[in-house]
Amino acid sequence: MEKEVIALKGITKTYINGKLKVPVLHGIDLTIYEGQFTSIMGPSGSGKSTFMNILGCLDRPTSGSYILDGQEVANLDDDELAYVRNKRIGFVFQSFNLLPKLTAQENVELPMVYAGMDKKKRRARAAELLTELGLGERLDHLPAELSGGQRQRVAIARALANDPAIIMADEPTGNLDSKASVDVMHIFTNLYKEGRTIILVTHEPDIATYAGRNVVLKDGYIIEDKQNPHMAGLVDEGAVREQEKVVAGEVKPSNSKLTHSADTIEGRKDDLTKVDKKPSVDDLYDQLEEEIKRGDAHA
Fold first, then answer.
1. What's 277's DSSP letter?
2. How far is CA 53 from the centre of its chain?
3. CB-count burial class (<10 Å; 0-12, 13-18, 19+) for 224
4. β partners of residue 165
5. Which residues pair with 41 in a beta bridge?
6. CA torsion through residues 271, 277, 278, 280, sign
7. Fewest beta carbons within 10 Å, which of 20, 203, 242, 298?
8. CA distances (Å), origin 201, targets 7, 194, 244, 289, 294
């Protein structure tokens, strides 16, 4: 039986400025299970950032019930909420939120400092995480000395510092180019494979296809909640490498089997693009689809 990690019932959020009331979320019901990779999409003003802040215990709902790992969040005091944010949830932000005067390793150490881990252990843990993410030679670099993709990998390492079961990412590819975006999404896919629960806010339909569940918000309501059995990050890696060689002209196309079908790729992108008209299409995806359409590969 699947374990409920997050259970929301009737969640509302209204901001009050003097006599002005601005309702943002309207009675949201949502259950997220352990090990799910869920994307949250929606146009600007849909309420997705407010929703993510509530999920991450960064803000409280106006009304409704939020149960996290069996605990009613409304009953937690500030210290207990701080513990949840530090130990049970790892955060990744669009703007990285790295401290500019600290090195990559020191930035990753911060959550462990707050958790009371001794210096030797936390330095070793930070170095291990950064090395796993391909930054073993950048431990002493300041954020300004790193590319956008490298800074986001530092942010992901920081989110993993205290080994949280839940990772929440708010537009993690928003400030990255296409290649860096794909690299970052492969990292999230690997975290999903490890059994972590991933919740990701994005406005990009291509990025949402990496998730196994796509939730769409509009005007503070959930208007769509669909399963996506053809997750982009789980495409057969051997087939991708072969297609890369085809693109480079190194080999002729073969009849290798791909995980996706043209209909599935087009269908999910079309569905998600209806909500946000700003797709960012990866060149490799285009090549995969063209190979399928020409009959050079069989889905």
1. S
2. 14
3. middle
4. none
5. 216
6. positive
7. 20
8. 18, 20, 29, 26, 34
Check: CB of residue 226 under 8 Å from CB of residue 39. Answer: no
Q: What is the pLDDT of residue 45?
A: 87
Nearest to 233 by CA among 271, 193, 205, 179: 193
CA distance 282 to 232: 11
Residue in 25, 47, 4 with CA at minimum distance from that of residue 201: 47
Residues in CB range of 163: below 8 A, 6 or more apart: none
**pLDDT given at position 235:** 63
CA distances 268 to 131, 190, 213, 229, 253, Å, are 34, 21, 11, 10, 25
- How many angstroms separate the Cα of 31 from the Cα of each of 55, 166, 212, 295? 11, 14, 14, 41
For the chain, the first-to-last Cα distance in angstroms comes to: 32
Q: What residues form DSSP beta bridges with 63?
A: 12
Examine the pLDDT at 2 and tell me if it is beyond 90: no
Say how far apart CA 54 and CA 168 lie, in whole Å.
Answer: 11
What would the DSSP string read from start to end of 95-158?
A: T----TTS-HHHHHHHHHHHTT--HHHHHHHHHHHHHHTT-TT-TT--GGGS-HHHHHHHHHHH
pLDDT per position as a tens digit, 200-245: 999 899 999 999 999 999 999 999 999 998 898 886 555 555 555 5
pLDDT band at residue 246 under the 50/70/90 scheme: low
E-only strand ranges, the chain: 4-17, 20-33, 37-41, 63-68, 71-72, 89-93, 166-170, 197-201, 213-218, 221-227
